[in-house]
Each structure stands twice: as structure tokens, then as C-alpha cells.
From TrEMBL:
<dbReference type="Pfam" id="PF13963">
    <property type="entry name" value="Transpos_assoc"/>
</dbReference>
<protein>
    <recommendedName>
        <fullName>Transposase-associated domain-containing protein</fullName>
    </recommendedName>
</protein>
<feature type="domain" description="Transposase-associated">
    <location>
        <begin position="4"/>
        <end position="76"/>
    </location>
</feature>
<dbReference type="InterPro" id="IPR029480">
    <property type="entry name" value="Transpos_assoc"/>
</dbReference>
Amino acid sequence: MSIRWIQNPNRCADEYLNGIEDFIEFARRHNPGATRIRYPCRRCNNTLWETIENVGFHLVRNGMIETYSIWNLHGEQLDHASSSNATRMDSVEPIVDPNDQVMDIIQDAFPFASTNINHEREDDVPTPIDSAEFEQYEKLLKNANQELYPGLQRLYMSMHTATDMRWHKEKRVDDDVMRHPADGEAWKEFDRTFPEFAADP
């Protein structure tokens, strides 16, 4: 299998993108049933695990380790005759990325903040998802996309109801008598704090 694409500096080139697809297909073939694999990007150096689908995005963004020519961590068998000539991964120094130094500084400054939200280490255990909670969440999302009650959107279609819906903005009398919540101090303070919101009747 040709790995010449790994040295291609243009990560948007068809050769590079096709090489990533070949690598992912290779990893799928040699790791049947696996949902996560190590990703051999320059930044992570085969130390972190990610879903097979996300590995491709990671490799396009960071580039693949140029010395990772035998994909032994993804199922490729070492050829003993050529293994003496092959570069051992243990002896390869990781490529220094200036972004890593910035991330180290950020992690030192904010030790409890997670900068690798989508990354999982080898020893991380996935959180089990309660199916009842998941169904409730799906129901909430579905309900959020529905109108509050039937006919709500038609309130502004009639000239008379549209006028009533904008009364608090257009016909309010400011005589220190509470006729509507818009006459209250809280409403007035909200209008002063968020003028762009208050401008919309």
C-alpha cells in the first residue's frame, strides 16, 4: 500500500484525502467491531482514541505522522524481514507543534478546564446513557420545535389582534399607574438594559 500521500503538504489535495479514506478503511477492516481507534496525527502521536468517523477530520486538520509507515497500531502486521530496517516508533521523537506549547500554557493557567472535550484517553470509560433520559431529551427537542399552542402564529395576521399584541409598546400611558406589566419598574429596567430587544415591538 502506497503511503506517499502522508508526505503531501497540501492536506486538501485529492491524493491526501483519498489516502485518509484508505487509512480509515484499512483500520475498519483490521479492527472489526471497533468503534474507537488511535489517531495518528502529528499532534497526538497515536496516544489518544477517537471514533473512526472523527479520525479523518483530525488527520486533515493536524496531518498524519510522516514516520508512521507501518500501521501496526491499526492492525498491520510487521514483516520480520523488513522490521530491522523499519523505524521503531519508540525511537522517533514527536514533532514539536507550537500550538502544543500554547495548549500547555493554557492548561497550566486553567488546570481544571478541559481543552480536549472530544478526546478520550485509552483508560477513559464511556458514560452509559439511560434510555429513559435519552427519550425524554428527544421529546423535549421535538416539543421545542412545535408552536406553543395552535394558532399562536396567526395572532399577527389580524390587524386588530396585532394592535393588541403591540399595546405595551405603542399605546402605553406613563402616568405612574400600573395597568400592564410594562408599567412596572422591572420592565422599564429591562428595556434600558437591552435596548435592541426593547426596540422590537
